[in-house]
């Protein structure tokens, strides 16, 4: 049996993970993978039950699993809690606790959705890029101070720290991934200003020597942000630090038309975790209109990377392609002339297309 821990989390996390589990069960019937599902809480939902956004028991269960499927966490209700109790803390606990050092965020443009992108069709058509974001280091995890007085004035600070081994392992993964894609890596940093970025660039150049058949270029993050919308087709694999990856992956999701379609894989030393890149969308939670495709595609990545089942992953991706080609659209990607469907309905259609 292959044990999958499902963590629905908060808001639409509940609905979209339910959809993805339905699809996984259907895939299992067809491909005989032997999937077994077990559920844990995280975020606000866990705080309400256990007084903490992530219990040790939940983290332990993830460590023992073959893969983790995660929905989303967060909501207004918990925004005023102290930092260590906030829902986001669950994500950081899982990332650090499972050693999820690499976050893979692919952006694909579906020909059927080319008009959903706010960017010109001829500009985005055919783009296919992968952001490889460092996920357990940098300013997200460096020492910080929420508030202190300096010369009688209140200040706060965060710290960007990267070590050579941390940069090496993410860079290697990016190059290895580029080798099985189109053989191009763009490393994004701010080496003209930041010391941690200068080390980043040096280490990336060193690692690149072991991959002579992969083409490497460097971009400053401000220019990278501009290039992503000016000419996204120039990119294959983008490797970058935690915070730049966070920002650029939201930007890149626009190329594909909707953040609701974007999956991600967080590759770990122990178990890997799969989640859509969007948040918990409390404004539409419980309405049955959320787009589950990002989560379903994340489940496909789980099959591919954690269970080595490319066949089953491909089947899910094809089923989504067909659903879009047949004109079904959730609210986030709906335009006139298409068939508007809710979360359950689109899940049903995807299952039937498997
Ligand atoms: C993401 C999210 C998280 C992050 C938030 C929810 C803490 O934006 O996964 O991109 O910043 O990493
Ligand atoms: Mg983000």
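-> sequence recovered:
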């Amino acid at each position: 049996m292959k044990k999958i821990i499902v963590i629905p989390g908060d808001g639409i996390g509940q609905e979209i993970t339910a959809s993805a589990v339905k699809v996984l069960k259907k895939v299992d019937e067809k491909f005989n993978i032997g999937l077994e599902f077990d559920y844990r809480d995280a975020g606000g939902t866990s705080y309400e039950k256990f007084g903490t956004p992530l219990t040790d028991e939940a983290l332990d269960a993830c460590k023992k699993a073959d893969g983790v499927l995660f929905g989303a966490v967060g909501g207004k209700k918990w925004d005023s809690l102290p930092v260590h109790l906030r829902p986001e803390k669950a994500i950081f606990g899982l990332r650090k606790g499972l050693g999820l050092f690499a976050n893979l965020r692919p952006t694909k443009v579906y020909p059927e959705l080319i008009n959903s992108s706010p960017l010109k069709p001829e500009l985005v058509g055919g783009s296919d890029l992968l952001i490889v974001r460092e996920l357990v280091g940098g300013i997200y995890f460096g020492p910080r101070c929420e508030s202190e007085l300096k010369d009688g004035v209140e200040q706060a600070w965060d710290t960007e720290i990267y070590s050579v081994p941390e940069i090496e392992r993410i860079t290697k993964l990016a190059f290895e991934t580029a080798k099985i894609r189109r053989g191009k890596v763009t490393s994004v940093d701010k080496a003209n200003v930041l010391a941690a970025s200068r080390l980043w660039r040096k280490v990336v150049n060193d690692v690149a020597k072991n991959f002579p058949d992969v083409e490497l270029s460097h971009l400053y993050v401000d220019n990278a942000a501009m290039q992503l919308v000016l000419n996204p087709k120039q990119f294959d694999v983008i490797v970058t630090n935690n915070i730049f990856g966070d920002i650029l992956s939201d930007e890149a999701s626009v190329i594909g038309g909707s953040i609701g379609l974007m999956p991600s894989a967080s590759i770990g030393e122990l178990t890997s975790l799969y989640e859509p890149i969007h948040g918990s969308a409390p404004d539409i939670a419980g309405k049955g209109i959320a787009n589950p495709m990002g989560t379903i595609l994340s489940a496909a990545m789980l099959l591919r990377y954690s269970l080595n089942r490319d066949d089953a992953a491909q089947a899910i991706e094809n089923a989504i392609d067909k659903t879009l080609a047949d004109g079904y659209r959730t609210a986030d990607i709906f335009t006139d002339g298409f068939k508007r469907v809710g979360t359950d309905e689109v899940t049903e259609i995807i299952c039937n297309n498997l």
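The chain has two domains: 1-99+269-354, 104-257.
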